[in-house]
Amino acid sequence: MRSVDWQATPLGHPDGWPSALRSATSLMLASPESMYLAWGDELVFLFNDAYSPILGPRREQAMGAPLRTLWADAWDAVKGPVERALAGEGSRFEDMPVRMNRYGAEEDTWWTFSFSPIHLDDGSVGGVFCVTREVTEVVVAQQRLARENERLIALFEKSPMFMAFLSGPEHRVELANPRYAEMVGHRPVIGQRLADAIPEVIDQGYLPLLDQVYRSGETYIGTEVTYDPVSTDGSVVEPRKLDIVFQPVKDAAGQSVGVFVQGLDVTSQVALQRRLRRSEARHRQIMDSAMDYAIFAMDLEGRITLWNEGARHTLGWTEAEMLGQTPERFYSEKDRVARRFQHGMRVALAEGGLSGERPFLRKSGETFWAQGALTLLRDEEGTAIGFVIVLRDRTLERAAIDALAASERRLGALVGASSQVLYSLSADWAERRQILRQGDTAQLLAPDWNWREAFVHPDDRAALDAAIAEADAHRKPFEIQHRTPPRNGSHRWVLMRVVPMFDAEGRVSEWFGTATDVTEKREAEERLQQLTVTLEERVRERSAELLMTEEKLRQSQKMEAVGQLTGGIAHDFNNLLTSVSMGLELLEMRVAQGRIDDLGRYVEMARSGADRAAALTQRLLAFSRRQTLAPTGVVVEQMVLGMMEIISRSLGPSITIGTHFADGSAAVQVDGPQLENALLNLCINARDAMPGGGALDISSDVVELAGSEAVALELPPGPYVRLSVRDTGTGMEADVVAKVFEPFFTTKPIGQGTGLGLSMIYGFTRQSGGQVQVESRPGEGTTMHLYLPRLVEGMQAADAAPAVALDSDVLRGPMRTVLLVEDETAVRVLVSEVLVSAGYRVIEASEGPPALDVLRSVEAIDLLVTDVGLTGPLNGRQVADAGRQCRPGLPVLFITGYAATAAVGAGHLEAGMEVLAKPFAAAELVRRANALLDPRQHAGRPSGQHTAG
């Protein structure tokens, strides 16, 4: 104030100021509050230091200036209060807005004013005293806070999250936004305890959680918790999935006063995430199913984040091995040094991707070629987030390409070396596309090569056109030979071969062909044909000669075999007949001399020779498969075990015996004694092959023969029991094995074997429907396998058919009638005498027809005894079959020295029939006849006839 020249103002020098002005000025200058006063009609402006900052740049001119001029920009705001104060009325304004220009620009300000009149001594008003305080910052802060509150209220009301404030330990609802109301079914909750307003929170466990948050002061956060709201209108309300936060609210002292509840209904998001996970799983499954493609993703640093099954299949590493790794792992050392992978990522970042083909390494270290594409991945906003690489193994394709290139090179070389004309024609045969090469045949073609006119003889064009039409219709290759047009008085023969070439749609795109000069070949063929005719005639003549020679050779071999057989038989029979004949001669001599005391010894010698001869013939019959068999069901294991004692005694202590049976119930239908004899014979042969001792193994198993295996064994397909005898003996060479079944062939020392044992086994086995197989090597022992048809379940050995009972009137006397049929007179007489001596009445016949006459008569016949091999039109079996037609169940005893299988039904006899092999003892004949005529069985009467004793 001291710097102001007050003399120049309407107020004049301060000494002349009214006391009221001086008092007000002193009060203002001493006050810490911002104040100013305006005096007189001019409203001369005075202010204190606290008011100075409000003036800003106007401060220098403010002291003593007229108020109206100084605050011209704010005059409209303060004019009213000033004028009222001048009129003697004070006023006060709080947060009054005033727009003013203090710093070169208009601004909104707020003020708290108090305008008071300053009274002179005479009571008039001399000026206005103003106490002011700028509250712009406070008002702006309040406005900001109000706006913030409005936003908070709007957020609370419009928030997608449900919110509520629960006060006190009872959790009384004080605030709840619309989303909260919607979640609880718009039930009235404000002012109520939560347990009363929403009772389901108790059973669902939310009330204990709120109690815990209130007591502990610790926040609870729940993710995807289940809330099952209760319907208030009876409608079905689906359970909801919620993300919730229970936040304790505390007072200044830190004590809990309530719980702020907020959360978000994430039911849709959870369902979406589930669908997304299923979708991702399906996508992953689809991606993993692309086994021919290695697909993997990387982040921006090149670390692998995804690895499909195709990548494992192609490269060898599993996803677990590759996650977090970089693809450099399967780059070659050269590419790693060149940082090719990093270069590819830079290019993909700049250009969006790149592709190419190059070699890579598998986990095994193998190098392979792959075609690959590296693609930059971006999010919805276009920001780069990673890369994806797709590789396809091109190893096989490159190999095929290399093979094709090599094939093309070979084709080029072949075309270059060919002497043929190679050409192609358009699909319609009209246009010559190209001639790949003209060789020697090119001389046949005219320069313009109008191929029909220049290449084909006029007489051959029709046949060629027909071949072309056929090829067109069926799109197939063809070849044809034709002549060329005559040149220089002669023509040439050309072989034309044409094949169709197809485009991608399967249509014929062109025809590729060759032309070969075959003139010389045809001429040679014609000459060859002439030679062939002559040669064929010569071949026919020579073949006839060879057939005759082969037949003679076969006959010679047969005779050699028969000679070998008969020689062996003659040798053995000479020995046997010698003992028989000499025994009879000595018997005759002693009877003539009257020396009868020791005749029995010579009789025994003759009988022994005859018995041995009979045994020899039985072996021959077994080999020839013409012995008579009596098949029964035989369980192989039981048979072998039952023979172990006799086998053990026969082999001796130096040989250990083992048995193995794969199927203990396996059975065969064979002649039991013959099978036992065959097994014992095999065991004895094995013993003789192990002179120093060893091991013998007898085993059986069931095999199913089929296909080539059955054919090789000459057996029909089906189940067989294989009985095997295996030894550890010396074994045999292949040439010896080939001859083991030949009669009289033996490897034993002279005098220790007849050579008929294995022949007999072979004949018996083949006659029983089986086969014998030999496995042997020198030093490795021998195994003999007998294959016999298995007796399957449901089959059994043939039982004797019930015979017709004898009439009681026949049994009253001992005399029974036998019809004896024998073509050998001496045998017939002897047999008849034996039967008569035994008490039988005998009717004799030398042939089949007379015997049939007797059988068809009313004559009582109790037993038919017949030779099998009768001379004349009927054999013994035919006589027996015919007799049984008119005399059902007639007992029959066949006597035979050569029992043909056809005569006894393929080697098997019917019930009530038996065979007695020649030679036989008289006692055996009578025993067998008596057995057949058991008093309990008789059926020899003609049908409808009965005769008294």
Automatic annotation (TrEMBL):
Gene3D superfamilies: 1.10.287.130, 3.40.50.2300, Histidine kinase-like ATPase, C-terminal domain, PAS domain. The modification 4-aspartylphosphate is found at residue 867. It is an enzyme of class 2 (transferase). Residues 223-278, 354-406, 476-530 form the PAC domain. It comes from the Bacteria. GO terms for molecular function: ATP binding; phosphorelay sensor kinase activity. This is histidine kinase.
